[in-house]
Amino acid sequence: MALMNRRTKVSDEIPTASLADIAFLLLVFFLTTTVFNEEKGLPIVLPEQSEEQDVSPKNLIFFIVQPDGRVVVRRGESEQEQVVAVNQVATILRTELAANDNLIAAIQTHPDAAYRHMVNVLDEVKLSGAERISLQELEN
Amino acid sequence: MAIKGAGFKKKSGSDSEIPTSSLADIAFLLLVFFMVTTVFRKERKRDIEWTDAEATEKIDEKRKNIVHIWIERAGTVYINDVVTPFDDISEVIRPLYAENRELVIALRGDREVPYSQINTITEELQQAGAVRVTFATRVEQRAVRARR
């Protein structure tokens, strides 16, 4: 009879061996499902309201965004206009910047042009490395 | 008077298993830590189509310094989940900017919104003095660009 003693005894403790597995599973689950809300975009600093600067026309290059997404390039001094595709803007501006460090890229957008057209041009201007950017609405 | 086990005791032999009894505590501690530190997105999801830009930068700014302005395709503007008419934007932003000088405005406009609306908003922001603006975009891969 003494043989039966130990074997039949049921442990009175809650089994905790798998608790770590459960906890880690939950941890991994939450880590993988969490989506971080990253802020991404094209930063720009608008001019202060009172700030009005006189800029010599030779330091200006205009990118006029048409409602259909085409871009018209106009150098500040000349009246000559040139229609280009959006993806050419960066190349043009890069060569212009190489010639003149103080160049200001002025993006003039037609009021009816879609926001994305303006962002596409701004994107190109940013890619070219231009520091001085001006955003304007095209006046008729 | 025989010595039990001939002097060799089981007690002195160290356990060959790694103690796992505290593993659960560690895991739960980590779990609780992550749960407590996670900040959930406060704003409601809006139905806008993002614009893509290759030059998209990550804005390294504290969350509390960022104010989102949503412009839906229909021209409805939301600031902090409140519908705001165009003319009132500067009045809404001005106290926020007075409170926090490091304020960054994230403009989240639908891609088809006409530029005149964006221009109105930037002018309102200038009036309020909040001049740090971000045009929220998605990162664009170069391969996609040809389709523009």
Please render the helix and strand layout as text.
The complex is a heterodimer of chains A (140) and B (148).
Chain A: H1 19-33, E1 40-45, E2 60-65, E3 71-75, E4 81-84, H2 89-99, E5 104-109, H3 115-127, E6 133-137
Parallel strand pairs in A: 2-5, 5-6
Antiparallel strand pairs in A: 2-3, 3-4
Chain B: H1 23-37, E1 52-53, E2 57-58, E3 66-71, E4 77-79, E5 82-83, H2 89-99, E6 104-109, H3 115-128, E7 132-136, E8 138-139
Parallel strand pairs in B: 1-8, 3-6, 6-7
Antiparallel strand pairs in B: 3-4, 4-5
3D structure, described in words:
The complex is a heterodimer of chains A (140) and B (148). Chain A has 140 residues and is an alpha/beta fold. Chain A has a domain at 60-137: Nucleotidyltransferase, domain 5, CATH 3.30.420.270. Chain A has helices spanning 19-33, 89-99, 115-127, and strands at 40-45, 60-65, 71-75, 81-84, 104-109, 133-137. In chain A, strands 4-3-2-5-6 form a five-stranded mixed sheet, with helices on one face. Chain A is rod-shaped. Chain A starts with 18 loop residues before the first helix and ends with a strand. Chain B has 148 residues and is of the alpha/beta class. Chain B has a domain at 52-147: Nucleotidyltransferase, domain 5. Chain B is built from three helices and eight strands, in the order αβββββαβαββ. Chain B has a five-stranded mixed sheet, with no helix packed on it. Chain B has a two-stranded parallel ribbon with strand order 1-8. In chain B, strand 6, helix 3 (115-128) and strand 7 form a beta-alpha-beta unit. In chain B, helix 2 packs across helix 3. Chain B starts with 22 loop residues before the first helix and ends in a 9-residue tail after the last strand. The model of chain B has no long low-confidence stretch (mean pLDDT 81).
